[in-house]
Amino acid sequence: PPFSGEREREREREREFSMSTFNNISLTRTFLSSLCTEFNDKPDSLFFNDGVRRIDFILAYEDEDKKDFEKRWREYFEASLMKMGMELEAIQSVNEKLLFVKVHMPWDVLCTYAEVLHIKLPIQPNDLSSRPSRWRFLSCITKHFYPNEELITKETEFFTAPFEKDRLEYFYVRDKDVFFTASMRSRMAYYILSRAPYEIRGNIKKFGITKLLDRGVYKAAYPLHDSRFNVESKEEGCPNERFLLYKEWAHPKSFYKMQPLNLIRKYYGEKIGIYFAWLGFYTIMLALAAVVGLGCFIYGYRTQDTSTWSKEVCDPEIGGKIVMCPQCDKECKYWRLNSTCEASKKLCIFDNFGTLVFAVFMSIWVTLFLEFWKRYQAELEYTWDTVEFLEQEQSPRPEYEAKCIYERKNPITGVKETVPYTACGRCLRLSIGIGTVLFWILLILASIVAIIVYRLAAFFAFSAKLRAQDMKELEPLKEYVTPQMATSVTASLISFVVIMILNTLYERVAIWITDFGEFELSFSPVLTCICSSFSSSTITPPVSTSPSPKGKRLPSNCGCLIELTTQLSIIMGGKAIWNNIQEVLLPWVKNLILRHCTRGPSEKVIPRWEQDYRLQSLSKLGLFYEYLEMVIQFGFVTLFVASFPLAPVLALVNNLFEIRVDAWKITTQFRRIVPEKAQDIGAWQPILQGIAILAVATNAMIIAFTSDMIPRLVYYWSFSVYPYGDHLNHTMQGYTNSSLSIFNINDFSNNSRPMKTPYNITTCRYRDFRYAPGHPKEYEYTIYYWHVIAAKMAFIIVLEHIVYFTKFILSYVIPDVPYAVKEQIKREKYLTQVVLHETNLKLVTKRLKPVNDGIVKFAEVNLTREEMELDF
């Protein structure tokens, strides 16, 4: 890590002087003349050739003499590793083109860097009795949905504390070979590799395996899998954790089983483990939403033939006698209302009172999901020893450290430290970053406008074609294919393509902004989710227009919920299918091509490091794409659920595949991921909370402005009152007629008049609430219209306040950390205080001598004040 302060600078100069002697170092490498013979019997060996030292990391490169500086950097880098305590062993590959450098961390180096990285290790077994599960009486049934306990045994729970090398005797060390797990060793090895220098010229220091990989000095750097995924290793002491993960987690036959999260965390680290824990929890919560959404859909499907408004549209005596106005100028034709009979029935499936109930339910569901996830996350934090994992304990990125050339005084510690740029430079970079974000948001707004323009043009074109009476080939489809539906489907396909293209660009821009401005890593997902949300907002309802005597069409009541539903189903389904194809096919095809090109011996005879080299490496963004895909899906499920109750069902089906696809991918097609520590899901948590708040407003507006629910309610309670005995009767009869205004066809202007009038009519109808011709306020809005507008605004305000109040109550009532976890955390802190700190206090107390006047003086021992303070 970079040094700060004058004392650290002196140490740096001393290291530069000592490192300058490494230029003449030539590492001794062991080349085996008959590699196949050596590894025929032990292809899955995880040790050096002596069979004692464990391999913690692998470096791979091609030994070429064309670039001398690469060879010089490589030798300097490996010499630096040896100087830092690492042990290396080089070996040639089977095809004699590649060289592999095995990296081993001795015990003393492990202890040193475990203390540097604040790794928590066990101090004593957990003595708090765990409470029995409330569902233990169902264990005979639920055990079939959990991984096989005979294969994946439950590990002993320990109280842990940050490791301290000088207090090793207080830690629970049974066997030094397994005290540090393989993921811990790999994490510490990567920490050293990321900070080992490969060139020092004056004040310029170049370091880190990442830069060497980018420049091609090394072809790959990775920790080893412990076995093949489909064959159990026969090596002595091999845990075969990869094989167990594939069999009980990644295999398609295990799709119904719960995930072995503790084994995932142990093998891949906390960052991978917390992702799969969140994805699994989200999927379980989706099951509840999917059941309610499916029930809402079934209710709409069963009532589509009995709803009053659909029966009036399909009735030959009502809808069959209503002639609708053309939907565009000149080319469009008049049409009968009952020609949309099938479309009106389909609309009733999604546009009913069950949709309102489901929208309110989902607003509460999203709150419960976030609150229960916080509780579950708190349990994982304690179980996985990340409770006190603070940002200052997380080491900075090597790319960030390399840019630290300016000095400043830390306001907290008072010590000088290095930073990558001055205050003015930071403001400049911040301004450029914000400007870039605003530019891309404006670009998305431009794409939304373009989609709307396309909708208008396509709607008029489809209206002219699909309403044509002389096109006999379209007669069988006229009841099912409407201009609105055709416009919606084509616009949705265009929106899907635009979203997929722009999302790729956003991700690249986000990476560039993160590196350029050195923002927090959370800036990338925030930018991408903002842009993805904007691009998803191209799901805009088509603009409905009404005829006007002035020649310009007027905006009218939309009633286009079915079009919005169509767009959501196409985009959600298309994204799910495309993402799964990418995640499954691309890694598999790449590995297949690589194996075909190499054409070396099979995995049965080549060593473990060469087997892993043939696999794909994880991208620099790691889990960024996985989180992004799920968060965007979460937005679709919550933001637009009022228009598409089946969204949770589709999301649930997709996630059941997503979990196994991701598990299969990282277990079988990728090299072992470098373990990373993580306390939570990071910047995605506030993004989810923001989506949950926004979802209430979007669903309220969808119900108010794209649904016919509010006009129906206003009609039912205000305009359909008939005397019935001694009381008033409310009915929906006559709603269709009341929702259609009258237009005199003689009022069409010359530029908008239809070319043909097939019916013997003088008036036509259109969707709106305007006065009829001949009225003193003809073609102006009626009182019904203003009642509807007032009802919509009141509905939005009342629904938002009720749901937000309910969300606040639930957030307050449900604690973020379970009581049992709080007890265990307190117990662990107490043990840490007793075992590690009070022992030191006793040692100090022995060196103090109390006197009668109450003043404590030092005993006659050879201790200076500095030594006493250090001991204390």
UniProtKB/TrEMBL annotation:
One of its GO terms (molecular function) is chloride channel activity. InterPro entries: Anoct_dimer, Anoctamin, Anoctamin_TM. The chain crosses the membrane at residues 275-301, 353-373, 438-464, 485-506, 630-653, 687-707, 783-805. Its main location: membrane. Residues 264-828 form the Anoctamin transmembrane domain. One of its GO terms (cellular component) is plasma membrane. Residues 47-261 form the Anoctamin dimerisation domain. Keywords: Cell membrane, Glycoprotein, Membrane, Transmembrane, Transmembrane helix. It is found in: Cell membrane; Membrane. It is a multi-pass membrane protein. GO terms for biological process: calcium activated phosphatidylcholine scrambling; calcium activated phosphatidylserine scrambling. Belongs to the anoctamin family. This is Anoctamin. The gene is ano6.
